[in-house]
Design a protein that fits this description.
alpha/beta, seven-stranded parallel beta sheet, about 300 residues, about 40% helix
């Protein structure tokens, strides 16, 4: 299958490219920079230069492909609304090119927002929200099943972890602990965040591309919920820092842009995803990955 991937040179995208190439697919990745283009060529993928705002380019690349995986997102949490609007426009451009083709289109969302859809319980793939940042794109992709597209959305865990992760939330939490001199959690720290190893994520994207039914929501979670206090304790242990609770009203000042999210309790199930696709996460969990120590080593330039 000829596959077009946005976000192909990123943390998860690079693993997806490797997974697809190993399975015999041909891959073309979207690249904004010379560095990204060189990394894609080195991996064995082809390159299409452009970005998420080049809607004509996205339409052309999607039309030439047998399937599309959309991973790219402008991770500007200071302007999430604008970033989400750009994502929505990119999704629609890809959808226009694939309409009526029956080709697969796998897009990306997140599970943590489901804390508002399923408060007090473990969220399932059937839980939905009517709209909002990123949710609008998710709902649009699902609706594309009625436009002759084999569309699916993978809701990723908030922490996707591995040695390939150089800029994710795990690094942000570690950097915050170093800067503040304590590894903190909010309240009693019992709120849960799902976790997923990068290589398990890559395998899930391939399975979704190859066989996910049209209009399917999938959960990219291996652990349905790791207590935030456990995460803080693992970080504090490796940094030799005290682990402490902070009040909810102090979360924004302590954690910065992550402040509104660190107290969310967002466990999510993967039961339906495993049933549909036969997906079985096989790589280490978050705490084991933190205990391995690689997150605390200097990142090579």
């Amino acid at each position: 299958m000829r596959v077009f991937i946005t976000g192909a040179s990123g943390h998860i995208g690079s693993a997806v490219v490797a997974e697809l190439l190993q399975a015999g697919h041909q891959v073309t990745g979207l690249a904004r920079s010379n560095v990204s283009a060189a990394a894609l060529r080195a991996s064995g993928a082809q390159v299409r230069r452009g970005d998420l705002d080049d809607q004509a380019g996205l339409r052309a690349a999607a039309a030439e492909a047998d399937g599309v995986i959309h991973l790219a997102f402008k991770h500007d949490l200071n302007d999430l609304v604008q970033a989400s609007e750009s994502d929505l426009a990119a999704v629609e451009a890809i959808g226009e090119a694939l309409e009526g083709s029956g080709k697969p289109f796998v897009a990306t969302s997140g599970t943590l927002i489901l804390a508002f859809a399923a408060p007090g319980r473990v969220a399932t793939e059937a839980d939905t929200l009517p709209g909002g940042p990123r949710v609008d794109s998710e709902n649009l992709v699902i609706a594309m099943a009625d436009r002759g597209i084999r569309s699916s959305v993978i809701r990723l865990a908030p922490i996707v972890h591995s040695t390939l992760d150089h800029h994710g939330f795990t690094h942000r939490l570690i950097d915050t602990a170093r800067q503040r001199g304590v590894s903190a959690y909010v309240g009693d720290g019992s709120n849960r965040w799902p976790g997923l190893h990068t290589l398990d994520a890559a395998h899930l994207y391939r399975l979704a591309l190859e066989s996910a039914p049209a209009g399917t929501r999938l959960h990219g979670v291996a652990e349905e919920g790791v207590a935030f206090r456990e995460i803080a304790e693992a970080i504090g242990h490796h940094l030799g820092l005290p682990v402490t609770s902070i009040a909810p009203e102090d979360a924004a000042e302590h954690f910065g842009f992550l402040g509104p999210f660190v107290a969310l309790d967002g466990p999510a199930s993967n039961e339906e995803t495993r049933r549909l696709l036969g997906w079985q996460p096989a790589h280490p969990g978050l705490i084991r990955d933190l205990e391995a120590g690689h997150y605390f080593e200097p990142i090579a330039a």
